[in-house]
Amino acid sequence: MSEDELPSAKGKRGVKPSGKPTLKTIAQMTGFAVTTISRALNNAPELSQETRDRVQKVAAEVGYLPDRAALRLKTGRTNVIALVLEPDEQIYGFGSSIVGGLTEAMRGTAYHLVITPLFRNVAPIEPIKHIVRNRMADGVVFSKSEAFDERTRFLIDNDFPFISHGRSNWPESHPWVDFNNEAYAYGAVQRLAAKGCRRVTTVLPESTLTYTDHIKTGVARAASEAGIAHEFAADVNLGSAADAIRSYVIKRSKRPDSPDGWVCSSEVSALAVISGLNEAGLKAGQDVHVITKQSTPMFAQFQPGAETVAEDFASAGRALGSLLLRRISGETEGLQSLTEPVFGWKDEG
């Protein structure tokens, strides 16, 4: 233990301060120097674990929060990671799972998470510009990456640490975490063909999103190899209201060339598809087969008759957080993570 780690006899242990606690408050309570308190709260490795644990425990007990403005002036850092999130995120379970994973990744660090909402009728680039121009965070996380996403372009050009959930097609390498949607779509259509389906329809994400092309490629390749027909749902996508998807399925199912297999990319869209099939007099899992990605166990509670492939958003959140922290610390290579789908088809009999 270094000399400045030795507690002073003047430390008022166990006495809770009045007013807003500061570094000086914690110093008075523990007997450590203010500089030691500051380094302990930032997990300085030269301090003993015992000292760091003690200081952090007292800071938590008195409700100490760093002065962000002072911190930014002194170090240029805010110790904040901003997650830009749509309040009505379409993909079931996405928001809460990503937040949970991100906070796990930041546990034990000086960083904490701030959620910046992206409201309707506001361009996705606007909250990003606001964060960067006002230095409101040390790093940014956003989702729904587009092929040539202007958010990615802006952040690269401004050399601002970020990570995206989903990839872009810009030539510069940048941090991202993604699910292999091409492999998912390929495997899903293979499964439908094995179950005897002759025409497969896919409810795609919005056309601007990068993973839309990944899904289309996987579907087309598997259908071609299996020698079956494929199509992509017209007039509706994952961003459409559930009632709109349901109405489309009803109409499409009543035509002579109706599909006998459906591929969905979210539980919400799958439930809408299954509801439409039921209204059209068809039973999922018997007359028609449905495969969807699943992000929470709750989907199975509806007993929908669909087969599922898991996509773990909590794990994605942990990867987003850990890779972004590496980027903030100055790393620029190896900051991408692609998760492969696991197919656990359960055949009866």
Automatic annotation (TrEMBL):
Region (Disordered): 1-22
Gene Ontology MF terms in the entry: DNA-binding transcription factor activity; transcription cis-regulatory region binding
Record keywords: DNA-binding, Transcription, Transcription regulation
Pfam families cross-referenced by the UniProt entry: LacI (PF00356), Peripla_BP_3 (PF13377)
Annotated ranges, domain HTH lacI-type: 21-75
Name of the molecule in the record: Substrate-binding domain-containing protein
Species of provenance: Devosia litorisediminis
